[in-house]
Structure prediction request, 683 residues.
Amino acid sequence: MTATTLAHSVVEPSGRSKGIAGTVIVVYAVISMVPLVWIFLTAFKSPSDSIAYPPKIVFHPTLDGTCNLFTTISRQTADYISSLPPPMNVCDRIARARNMVVAGPSNFVPRFLNSLIIAFGSTALSVVLGVTAAYAFSRFRVPAKDDLLFFILSTRMMPPIAVAIPIYLMYRELGLSDTHLGMILLYSAVNVSLAVWLLKGFIDEIPREYEEAALVDGYTRLQAFRKVVLPQATTGIVATAIFCLIFAWNEYAFATLLTSGQAQTAPPFIPIIIGEGGQDWPAVAAATTLFLVPILVFTVLLRKNLLRGITFGAVRK
Amino acid sequence: MAEIRVEKLHKAFTDFVAVRGSTFTVPDGDFFCLLGPSGCGKTTTLRMIAGLELPTSGRILLGGEDVTFKQASQRDIAFVFQLFALYPHMNVRANISYPLRNQGMPGEEVRKRVEEAARILRITHLLDRSVSGLSSGDRQRVALGRAIVREPLAFMLDEPLGALDAEFREVMCGELRALHDRLRATTVYVTHDQLEAMSMADTIALMNNGVVEQLGPPQEIYDRPASVFVADFVGSPPMNFIPFHGRVAPGDKSVRIGEAAVAVPEAREGIAEGELLLGARPEHVQLSASSPLRASVIDAEYLGTTQIVTVSTAQGTTLKARLSSEVAVRPGEHTGLVFHPKKLSLFEKKSGRALRSALHDEAAHG
Ligand SMILES: Nc1ncnc2c1ncn2[C@@H]1O[C@H](COP(=O)(O)OP(=O)(O)O)[C@@H](O)[C@H]1O
Ligand SMILES: [Mg+2]
Prediction:
């Protein structure tokens, strides 16, 4: 062995280990992308292609699924259809080719909006409650602080669905069933303990001197919190918000149990989209694809903060 | 600008008393040093004056007004922290102007004040830089800038030079003192470094275990230490202590150490027979072959014009003498010790308290 092969840096990984790491990541990414790609492809298949066996990788793309997702259609006689004015859009045309007409929009858009309202609403509430509680726990002398913090954490020690029946009964009694407010409160209740714990970690890391400097400079406690602590806690707030959002956005069990109509979110709605002759897989796939978009956009927009945030302050200058 | 008065200030944390009944006055325009070893309660005292900590008991007066329970934001005191508390998300100019913008000062006035402060601190060229790239010295200048733009009633500085390297610390010491001479603002400066305190302060309060042991100008603290702790903490090398058994009556002009009679400043108070300590600064110790107080040379450390000579007495006490480098000494050499008779201190060993003597007369006369 020559001296040059021995002389490698002990901090920088060698080119070879970087290469291996890169390969592993790519393989992992490809494997985890397969189901997503399959869902995406299915969204553009015709209903029969979507359940064909062996599965079709090459197929003739259609907008059947997308149209079924956004519209309700009804069967009419050929005479009636020919008496109509020419189709106004692509969904109209697809429907008429099968002796159907578009009767109106489906429930998908309102359900999707419900999901947005409830997920973002509960995330905002969890983060606001979390950051104020975390600040108090971090900075003030709170009686029985450790016990309180443990209690807050203990609310996560059983699966939330274990209390589904009592919550169902309580919500019915309180008139919170199938309301936006009810779902926002429920998801916030689940998320707030996570938010308090995560954010307390981040706020503990911010030196007190920053606020104290603001205090002696004439700022009130609240101003110091808003203008000095919050900007420095951005990373933690963003990371916490993403965790809360992902939970609320994907939550299925409570949504199924507690919502059915006006406040129903997308997760319980999507799997039961029925088309002509049963489950409408292309429509389900199209809905699932669209369902991924908000989280994807939110995460990509904030990914810088997220990456730094998920290391929990371990990376400090 | 204002005088600060602290009366019987006491601070207990749940299981620990950090400050015990401190009383002192910082005259208007004074450069006042809180000096003491780490953990003695300096920062806690400073934080109470600034309003960042509430005292358990006692009073704080700022310019005659009782501010003990006033919010920090209402006191008009500037605080420079040990950790440079610059806001990382703002550049230098924004950091310095931050306290002013909050007061709703017009932009033009803010700009003028910031530039004036930057000029005094010689950081004009850094104003538009981000604080993250600055050296620690420059960061501390920016922190000082933040303090001086406000023109507050008083400045609190908590070991502001603690994070700088030794060489730069000396430079900054000079700058800080020059800045103070220029602004003449009441300043309370916390440090554990006696050299810093001695070189900068008008008045020093030397703290130990939450208690102010001695209060006075640096010279006074150095020449007439009120306790063994003070004598030992200040000076480098610190004061020498020679233990002996004996008694002192008012009017005594010498004490017996072993066989030798050592001349001391005339005692103004007496003390019953017991364990005592004779205190002598290294520069007040000389070697003399004829002295009955016998000692042998252990070591000599050459410092240029002076040398620090370590000797050991027959009783086994080690002393350090600061001698001219021209005096030739050999390790192992047997010799005798003489002390400067007017400069010696006597302490009661048990309490550590200094006995009053002619040494203290001078203080009374000024
Ligand atoms: N918030 C606190 N809670 C409990 N003990 C404290 C607190 N702040 C300081 N102390 C204790 O009080 C003592 C004095 O602290 P401090 O004033 O910071 O000392 P110094 O600045 O002289 O080094 C230390 O022993 C420290 O541990
Ligand atoms: Mg301190």
Q: What stands out?
A: The first helix of chain B runs from residue 42 to 50. Residues B 42-43 surround magnesium ion (ligand 2) (CB under 6 Å). Chain B touches chain A through 26 residues (CB under 8 Å).
